[in-house]
Amino acid sequence: MNLLIMGLPGAGKGTQAAKIVEQFNIAHISTGDMFRAAIGNETGLGLLAKSFMDAGNLVPDDVTNGIVKERLAQEDIKTKGFLLDGYPRTIDQAHALDQNLADLGIALDGVINISIDPAKLQERLSGRIIHKVTGETFHKVFNPPAETYNEEDYYQREDDKPESVARRLEVNIAQGQPIIDHYRTQNLVHDIDGDQDIDLVFADIEKVLSGLK
What we know:
It is found in: Cytoplasm. The protein is α/β, with parallel strands linked by helices. Helix content is 52%, strand content 16%.
């Protein structure tokens, strides 16, 4: 099977991706792993990507798309299939992926979209607090340190503050929705309710993927 997995930050995409890869024995292709491998192997595109990263710049789409295509051309993809995680991030990357898959003679079988109300994700992501002395991590709603606690003893990372979380979700929705719409026109999108227990989410994913095999 050749799959994409999509979902907003906090939707549990990483957890479900790991379960899919283990259960269905397909190659897990994440953006970070691809870049590290290309740079470590000193491929032409890997070295080019490194030059941008070392300069503190974003890697251009054409380089990213090329690294993805190199990975998809490797032998294990032919025998095992793949789960793409963290790519495509923009509609332009989605169009490039379509072309690269066509060039390689690979068909995409499905797009798993883990869907949760953004307001609930806001609560999930902005509730993390860290104890100033011990460094222990808690959650205001799901894992509070005690029934009553002194908020002055805890702090939040900048990324966890409500305004930062809201901006991150807005950016991801703006970038991700056109991609989902693009694949929906190809009848590839399978929406999964992410607002349930982790095992129940995966059970729903299993049902979908078992029907694709």
